[in-house]
């Protein structure tokens, strides 16, 4: 029952609280790209890889009371905070899906900004291309983000650590 | 004259029930429509199994693709001479609009789920691979096929062009809402598209809506909301999708176990083995899949035989509302009860959730999540739609999720172990018919 929901719940049980929908989207995408078997389908959007399926699944988990969503009005946009509830913990006890231990990678990602995770996720989206082409592609699709060579190098370093 | 500029000496038109006429003047578009890869879309229904609920919904991906092309053609016509619009991008937009769904396969949602495929990947493969479509595109100029593929994948650097084909108010959605409404025969799904096209404005990186057109967009958002609940998320359609998915699961399971089929499933073998290539994919269409479903009714495997018979003859599963909170403690018991009466719960007890659907609502989102619809205010400022529209804000805040449990009530009723069946019915809270 709801095995894909259970996988997302395991993510929350590992990371505790996540601030920002963008951060949440990118974290799951990066983990998925590194082999953690989340099933949500991603497409490239204006801000990089994005999964409507994940957005809806989170909405479902909130409506079921397994995850708590808090809204914070930031004048021209709303920021969301997510964390697992007691009900969610109970659900996970009943329906634990078979997932590898991804806590180390998840916590590494949690410490990063959503801007940086957007860069890492975008690089991973083009992972089948040679590295120099990936960097060109990132500048091409995200000219406004203006990522520096230092950020690019840090992103490659993180990717190497994650896939080890 | 360069191939990209070549015009047919006489405009060709396709009669269309939604847009009245689809106009073609560019040689490139005419040649793309004639390719076998594009013609294949005639044999793939736009709404998959929805015809089992709304009998008129037999329209194809071919109809829809022409419709999206026509809408983009009209938008571009309105953009001519506007700031930020470059007429050089015209052919790129038209080709991307026409080809955006090229990689859809038969019953693609269920098929992709079981075989872990992605129609978007195949759209890319058909456009950049060794295909007739690719040969036409590369005649425009070398590298043009890659550009079209990038626009469809949303990885092209020209975000304005991308947003015409794919955004929260794009030609794709505007066509399918109206077309699906027309063919299903429902009375929702209508909105004033002509008005929306007139108030669309190109900006540097997206299409925005002039604020005076807000009410037309509200109507579009409302149509999207109603179509979601009344058509796309119809519980009977979901039942047929559940059965379809289980057929694919079962046939793959049997193949993996070494079951000897009476009719070798030649068209599926590379998919069972995860060795499929573009040629295998292009050979599949819905006629082929129906042929196998007919033949699999003759197989000795009772589950496969039964599921195919159900699908072909529309003997669908029944459903009850499913609340995971309430069912959490009895779920394992329910599975065991099904096993006790020899009904395999892996195939006959299925939870289906709203997140399993490939359709979505309007999402205002937070900054950096997904590009919302922006209104262009008289002072040239951009404002997110739900911040200006009470109607959209109200819809955006609604609970939009749902879970249902599907099962074969007929099998339960026919089962001789009445005591166990009664226990199952009590857990599912079934009294009489569902």
From TrEMBL, chain A:
Protein name: YwgA family protein
Species per Swiss-Prot/TrEMBL record: Cerasibacillus terrae
TrEMBL record, chain B:
Annotated CDD domains: HDc (cd00077)
Pfam families on file: HD, HD_assoc_2
All copies of domain HD, residue ranges: 61-177
Gene3D superfamilies hit by this protein: Hypothetical protein af1432 (1.10.3210.10)
UniProt signal peptide: none
Molecular function terms, GO-annotated: dGTPase activity
Cited InterPro entries: dGTPase-like, HD/PDEase_dom, HD_assoc_2, HD_domain
Superkingdom, taxonomy of origin: Bacteria
GO biological process assignments: dGTP catabolic process
Protein's name in the database: HD domain-containing protein
